């Protein structure tokens, strides 16, 4: 049986993340041993050329995956065009509500959203209590050990007339891992990249819903909130997000309801 390795990178400025440094970039791949060098080079290039600046702390590590890698079908994809941030965030609220997040929970999360800026991971927001349930004084939850084999992603992208974009691939990989878990009700995300203003809402019910404007150009504040059902086992959920290895795999024999990017 072929062995795979989890290759991970994180980069920051002024000091390491845990010492309060500014997050510059992060990324990861799952690679066979003979491809680890290629993965390291790709992640190094991503860290050294990011629009958030030049890092002065950079860490790349890899370790053997010694458990079975689960395979998940990618979420269906759709794009929602908006003209303003206000329109985009209103659409995000509506999509979250359609996904099963109560309106009161959505509004409370949006009221607190500036408190979540600066985290390099995700905030967990319980729809039962309307409260953040990860540990506010500790690091946020970092989703890890996930990838989409390049050839399979290319097949999927060509079939759906989607650009073979690394950004789309990485976002959809994460959204699929997160939202295929039964604890997740929905996810809200936009990037901390100052030049990238598209974000998304994702859920099992609605799939991966891109929204073309969720912040202004030049804004370095990103957002990642997982709305979850707090009645389930939180520790097992976090273990899944951080440790369970996942491959996204699209089966071209299956017909789904994904729509092409416009």
UniProtKB/TrEMBL annotation:
An example Gene Ontology molecular-function term? ligase activity
EC top class, in one word?
Answer: ligase
The encoding gene is bioW
List the keywords (alphabetical). Answer: ATP-binding, Biotin biosynthesis, Ligase, Magnesium, Nucleotide-binding
Q: Which reaction is recorded as catalysed by this protein?
A: heptanedioate + ATP + CoA = 6-carboxyhexanoyl-CoA + AMP + diphosphate
Q: Which cofactor does it need?
A: Mg(2+)
Q: How does it assemble?
A: Homodimer.
Organism lineage: Bacteria, Bacillati, Bacillota, Bacilli, Bacillales
Q: What is this protein called?
A: 6-carboxyhexanoate--CoA ligase
Does the record bear Nucleotidyltransferase in its keywords? no
Question: According to its UniProt record, which protein family does this protein belong to?
Answer: Belongs to the BioW family.
